[in-house]
Amino acid sequence: MTIEPLLMLRGVTKRFGGTTALDRVDFELRRGEIHALLGENGAGKSTLIKVLGGIHVPEHGTIEIEGRPTPIRTVADADRHGIRIIHQELSLAGNLSIAENIFLGREPSRFGWLRRGQMDRDAAALIASLGLVELEAADRARPDRKRQRLLGRLQGVRTPVSALSMAHQQLVEIARALSTQAKILVLDEPTSALSEAETEVLFATLRRLRDQGVGIIYISHRLEEILRLADRITVLRDGRAIGTQDAAKVNQRDLVRWMVGRDIADHFHRPAFRGGPIALEVRDLWGPRTFGVGFAVRYGEVFGLAGLVGAGRTELARLLFGIDPIQRGQVFVDGRPVRIAHPRDALNAGIVLVPEDRKREGLVMIQSVAFNLALPWVHEWITGCVPRGRRRRAIVDRAIREFGIRVANPEQCVAELSGGNQQKTLVARWTEHRPKVLILDEPTRGVDVGAREEMFAILNELVESGMAVVLISSDLAEVLHLSHRVALLRDGRLLRTVAAEEISLETMVAELTGAIAR
Amino acid sequence: MIVGKRLLPLVAAVVVLQLVFRFGIPFLWGGIPRFWHFENQLDIAQQISVNAILAFGMTLTILIGGIDLSVGALVALVGTTTVYLLGATRFAWWELPAFALLAGLGMEVVLRLILGGRSGGLARIAATTGLRAVLLAAVAFFCGRGDLGGPGRFLFAVWTALAVAALFGGFNGACAATTRMPPFIITLATMWVARGAALRFNEGRPMHIPEDQTVFLALGNGRLADTAPIPVIVMFLLFVAAAVLLHRTRFGQHLHAIGGNREAARYTGIPLVRREVAVYVICSLWTGVAGMIHASQLYSAEPASGVGFELNAIAAAVVGGTSFTGGIGTMAGTLVGAIIIGILDKGLNQAGVHYSFQYMVKGLVILAAVYLDVRRQAKRA
């Protein structure tokens, strides 16, 4: 007899506008199994979780739980069917105690009065029954041991969550998820903020829960971790489930090849590199999350910053643009040292940054396209208190024309534009005067396929006209195939810089995930 | 764009209010026959001038996503400072140097914002700033030693009072821009500091303005060519200055960007700290002028006056279409907002409505105005 699956997805498809996030995905989760979900940035892992959690409703496909077809349309549906999702960012209230967090939203009460004693006892019992011994021990490390012994085990659950380590907070989150009838536990990158030892604590708990019959879906970038923990592994690539394997039968090299092994689409046209003098040079740069990075970018070159989420790519860009303070190190533009303490300094030196979050960091969303295009050049079209409408119009018209921004009229509110056109607006406004170095952070995030191609064409044009471009993208294939050279970043450190022709996507992913070290 | 589509409904509201108070409501109430007399209308203009001036500054702070609650107390502090320095027959030995130093520092704050420029390291900036402030203080000290009622003393009094205002504004702005404290709390705190400072003068009792201070008394009560009230003229000048600043300069564009999206403004290279400090200093300077007009109108400086003025100013700005989320607002809107509140106050008063009802009507009108504005914006988006 085959084991009856706990959860079964068949042909699940989810589209966002023009992009297909999930394409006929089949997925099976058994009772008492840790099933790892693996894939590159943007492969569809988060979308899949959101489908399970009732945040996204798929267009096609069925979800079965314990053999019965179970449509999940709302978050409440998912909750009712025992699906518990623990997202990357914890959702605990730091000022509240462990017990209060576990029972948040369904505190035991009598006639509206909170029954705190009951709550503490229930929480302690729950922790004991789940065998979260690590959590029971959490408070033992705290200094006032005498008092604790007096209060016994209850004291533990009264500890405020903010006093716990990240791993223990993670466990509280798990306890909360399992405090009601839970069949399926989903963890999204739970170890990204954990230390080595804390990870072990978490793993021990997960294994015990598995043995109690909970089905666990585990998502992580870290291959080594997955091989150690998971029973089976399913790989997602470009929104498709590529296949499922027993973890015992594969090694890291297999996994990498599996994750990346796609046909590289031929829509990438790397601009020709004609070779030019060095535009930007960075020596031994240190910042809040950057540790001794150094590289040089030439005019007419695309320099890719490759790394997984959290590798410190954006942080590096923020340093170079003067958003975050440079703690140590030097920046040279055209061979001359420049001091960057404020975005103004970067702009004066000819460095321009198009930030990753268009809505938050890029555009003034309540204003018009023209306002946003003309904003960096106010000093050119207003002298004293005399705005020169013609100059402003010239700036705006040039940008709209050259970049093909589709607007009804320039005074249209920028929020009404599509993602691609917003992105074009952001890039266009900086080209009024040619910057020396253009840093593009995630230029294709949230834009549809057509706009992506247009962005690539714009990039090519700018580079071939001799601009130095630093490209950051979570799509590693994109970085590799558009850049002339690539810097591999991991945990805020530069692993190495390599010519794009000399490294394969597989090797790159392997190095970035730490599967192989050089 | 000084006058936009958003202004039309506000102007319509002014017209409607004028008609209602003149001709009344059919079958219910007969209206006020003398409401449209020239003198009566001038009276309204004169009465709104202080609130309007405060509202101009308030509009700037709200536009960048902040607020300034200290203006009411600052009105009192500026009034008491000016009148004290104008009328004191003799100073304690430390008073003149101390006030001169404040005058120097306050002027320096304003000068730095106007001249701008980041030159050299911190030490050099501190040195040049300190030197200039001391020089200015010396000049102020010299002015302050002038005769009672003389031009030197007058200059000293006005200068020092405005400098005190500028220092408060600079402090508010610096805190708002460089710390994570919310402007609401910062200015709530400085409001009490300013109030306390105002109460230091004359043991908190009102100080009469000497009758020979004709220039200062004219500020609040005089008339140009026997018709145009001087406070209204001053209000108009400050309106034009604020409107030009907000709608026709780089500074104004930057404020719109900061209010619309602070992070985006940072990524565009806009100097956030400098702009934010400037906004609060301007708000305080405008408040300073309003404080002097207020004292002049009362013929005395009252340390306990100005309570709640900040709320009236906020009301005018908000009725005028300034968005509390920041980034949206016009000076003309604020001016009309102040006019609406002014007409309402005067009209209800002359109609003999009990003042308790006046408050209620005012509250409901503000609520209605903001509701309509919010709804209109939601429809547009």
Commentary on this structure:
- The complex is a heterodimer of chains A (518) and B (381).
- Chain A is 35% helix and 25% strand.
- Chain A has 518 residues and is of the alpha/beta class.
- Chain A has four domains: 1-82 and 185-262, P-loop containing nucleotide triphosphate hydrolases (Rossmann fold); 92-182, no CATH class; 264-350 and 435-518, P-loop containing nucleotide triphosphate hydrolases (Rossmann fold, 3-Layer(aba) Sandwich); 359-434, no CATH class.
- Chain A has a six-stranded mixed beta sheet, sandwiched between helices.
- In chain A, a hairpin with a 2-residue loop joins β23 and β24.
- Chain A is globular, with a radius of gyration of 26 Å.
- With 381 residues, chain B is mainly α.
- Chain B has one domain (7-15, 38-374).
- In chain B, strands 1-4 form a two-stranded antiparallel ribbon. A two-stranded antiparallel ribbon of chain B has the order 2-3.
- In chain B, a hairpin with a 3-residue loop joins β2 and β3 (228-229).
- Chain B starts with 6 loop residues before the first helix and ends with a helix.
- The chains are: A alpha/beta (518), B mainly alpha (381).
- At the A-B interface, α13, α14 and β20 of A face α9, α10 and α11 of B.
